[in-house]
Amino acid sequence: MTLGGTYAGKISSPFNGAALYANGDYSAYNQYFAFPTHSFTLRGASSNSGTARVDLQIGGTTVGSFYFTGTAPTTQTLSNISHATGPVEVRLTVSTDNGTWDAYVDYLEYTN
Q: Which end of the chain has fewer beta carbons closer than 10 Å to its terminal beta carbon, N or C?
């Protein structure tokens, strides 16, 4: 995945993943989707006891949000998400950071 934004960076704790520190920070990759509906599971955590929000964007459209509370890694699933087909960018973006938490993301999986 590609990291972007002012402060996004790699981390090694609580897992080997990425930290999205501020609004506009993202992790993205290109994917071809033949079908328009999938479920998406993201492993992540917050930097503290606050709830970190990470938006899932597909083809430039926000299709759902993941919420991680606390520093222990958990997995969150968005089920039956309708999205664009063909070659699209899949992006995990922070857009609601108020300066009280950072989002840590590990892996994103999708299933039919």
A: C
The verdict on pTM exceeding 0.85 is yes
Are the CB atoms for 56 and 92 separated by under 8 Å? yes
Asked if 38 contacts 81 with a C-beta cutoff of 8 angstroms, the reply is yes
* Sheet containing strand 2-4, strands side by side: 2-4, 26-33, 86-93, 51-58, 61-69
d(CA 52, CA 30) in angstroms, rounded, equals: 24
CB 90 within 8 A of CB 15: no
Question: pLDDT tens-digit profile of 23-67?
Answer: 999 999 999 999 999 999 999 999 999 999 999 999 999 999 999
